[in-house]
Each structure stands twice: as C-alpha cells, then as structure tokens.
Amino acid sequence: MSSKPPITVTQPFLPPLDEFIPYLERIWQSKWLTNNGPFHQQLENELCERLGVEHLALVSNATLGLVTAMQTLRISGEVITTPYSFVATTHSLVWNNLKPVFVDIDARTLNIDVDLIEAAITPNTTAIMPVHCYAHPCEVERIQRIADTYGLKVIYDAAHAFGVTHKGQSLLRHGDLSILSFHATKVFNTFEGGAIVCPDLKTKQRIDYLKNFGFADEVTVMAPGINAKMNEVQAAFGLLQLKHIDGALAMRKAVDQRYRDALANHPWLEVPALADDTEHNYSYFPVLVNRTHAHTRDAVYQQLRSAGVHARRYFFPLISNMPMYRGLPSANPERLPVANDVADRVLCLPIYPDLSTDDQQRIIDLLCR
C-alpha cells in the first residue's frame, strides 16, 4: 500500500472558509434558517441567469427532485429509462409506484439508445426518463420527436449536467423537466442539494407546493407533498460556489485535457470522446478497459487502489442487475448487451479542481506501466 494520501475519484470544491463566514453571520442574524429564505430566493435567481433557464426550483437533494418531478407531471404506469445510471434514477420511479422499462445504451455516448425507445413503448407508457450520462448530451431532438408522436412526457436526469450547453443552448431547456444534483461530489455543490428546471411559472409553483408538504399558505394544502426544501446554509454555500465556478471549471478542463493527451493511444484503454457542439463541464473522466487486456477492469481497479488511487466503477453494478430490478422483463441481460458490457469495463478516474499535476501524473504512470 502506498504511503501517500489516497486520491479519490472526486472531491468537493471548497472556497476559502473566511468567505463563507459572512453568509453564516447573516443567517444567524436573520434567524431565517429554511423555508424559502433570502439566500434561497437569491440562489434560484442567480442559477437561472447562470444556466440560461427561465425557472428553477431548488430542492434538498436530486433524489427528492426526481421523486417530486414525477408527482409534478402526474406520471403513471411505465417509464422508459436507462439501466446505466446511479440507482436514484430508477429508485425515484419505484417510490412513485411506476414501472421502469429499461432500454439499452449507445456504445459511443453511453446514453439511452434512441433507436430502441419506440419498441419499448406500450399503452401503459407515459414518460421517458433519459440520463445525460457523465454530462454527455442525450439526443434531445430525436427523443422529443418520439415523445411528441406518442404523447409522452420527458424528464431528464441531468444530475451531471450543470452548465452544459449543446448547440449554443442550455442542455437543461430540453424536455418537460430537468433535474440537477448539487451533491458534494458534483461540479457545483451545495453540500447536498439539487434543482428542478421547469418551463413556466405555473409548473414551478406546483413544484414549490409539492416540495413543502403541499402547502399553498398557512392553512391550505394543495397536494400530498413531501419535505424537499433547501435550507439557507446550503443556499448560501451555493451562492459562494457560483463566485468561483468559472475557475473550478477551467481547472477541471485542464485535468481532462492532460488525461486525453496522455491516454490517447493507450493500448488497452478506450477514452470516450467528448460530444461535438457542446460546452462541457468535465464532471467525470470515464475510461473503458478493453477485454483484450491481460487483466480485467476489476484487476486494474484493485491495482490503482493498492497504490492509493480510489477510482470508481461508475456505474457498476448495472441497475437492471440489482436484486430489486433484475426480475423485470426489460432487465434481461440479453436485451441490454451494451450496458452490461460497459458496466463491466468502466473506470472513472479522479477529476476535480484541486487534483495536482503530480498526482495526476502518478495516476497516468500507473495506467501506462
């Protein structure tokens, strides 16, 4: 085992502590700790401006954001989605008593394979929930055409996609709703947290009711809501993060480029290409271990870990292979060959603003032995 400190796959970006103290002092002075406080309102406004969207509702985490999104659009029956994602994507459907229907992924983008969506539609299908995996844009135009043809809603799990633009437009403007994650490991974080991007004020109002137990006022409950409010400390930290986000993104880009330059011609690693016509946020750096390599992905994972590099097999195991989902007809591995193959070969390498050049070179050297 290496004596050096472990290098994790991602670390939260933390601005200087002394910059955060004035925010905390204002919260203490106001005694407004949660429930649509001034920092909460300010962060919603500043995020809308930053992300190029009209309306956005902050939530305490992205999982509750996904759950609330389904309630907002009154989704029922079956929802077509990808098995290659974090478990919260599918869990949010089950918490709404919805049936997930898995569709295989595209080998190039690692997103849902749009060519397979129509064949998965049944009379019970009401929505499609794709994932912008690793912030790589889904084929949003084609997905929308399918949704329009069959009268389906589109809810994007955009957990990774903070600040991503595609063809000159915010990626978050597509679909009926998009859900962002502001978890500590994300490009932009509020410790825990998230947001639902919505197209109009009426939809935002319904989300705001639902995330606060359904309350419209002190005595009026509009719907069976949940407690998904973001508190003032989280919102304040988000406002501070926004002041530093451009620098953090630039540092992520530099880390990404060093990996790409060093691993471009690697004999047994594949590096997925970045999407064209896209302004990226460099949220993850996935690589695929070729099956022709003498060692398996798991062996490479263990070798890195033994050297103090904590890469992630992200996403593994595949959601459709987990005990609670593998009994679904759509979870049959024969129907999901690409997703199963990728899940068995993927490694996400460390990428975060504070990753030093020396530490990154150590990772590269371990992979190039």
Helices, strands, pairings?
Layout: E1 7-8, H1 17-30, H2 38-51, E2 55-59, H3 62-72, E3 78-81, H4 88-95, E4 99-102, H5 117-120, E5 125-129, H6 140-150, E6 153-157, E7 165-166, E8 169-170, E9 177-181, E10 194-198, H7 201-210, H8 232-263, E11 269-270, E12 278-279, E13 285-289, H9 297-306, E14 309-310, H10 337-345, E15 346-349, H11 357-367
Parallel strand pairs: 1-14, 3-4, 3-5, 5-6, 6-9
Antiparallel strand pairs: 2-10, 7-8, 7-12, 9-10, 11-13, 13-15
Helix pairs in contact: 1-8, 2-8, 3-4, 3-7
Would you tell me the overall average pLDDT? 96
**CATH architectural name of the largest domain:** 3-Layer(aba) Sandwich
SSE order: EHHEHEHEHEHEEEEEHHEEEHEHEH
CATH topology tier name of the largest domain = Aspartate Aminotransferase, domain 2
Question: What oligomerization state is this entry in?
Answer: single chain
Which band does the percent of strand residues land in? 5-15%
Number of helices: 11
How far apart are the termini?
17 Å
Helical fraction equals 25-40%
CATH class of the largest domain: Alpha Beta
Please count the beta strands (DSSP E, at least 2 residues each).
15
The biggest sheet amounts to: 7 strands, mixed
- The name of the CATH superfamily of the largest domain reads Type I PLP-dependent aspartate aminotransferase-like (Major domain)
- Globally, the shape reads globular
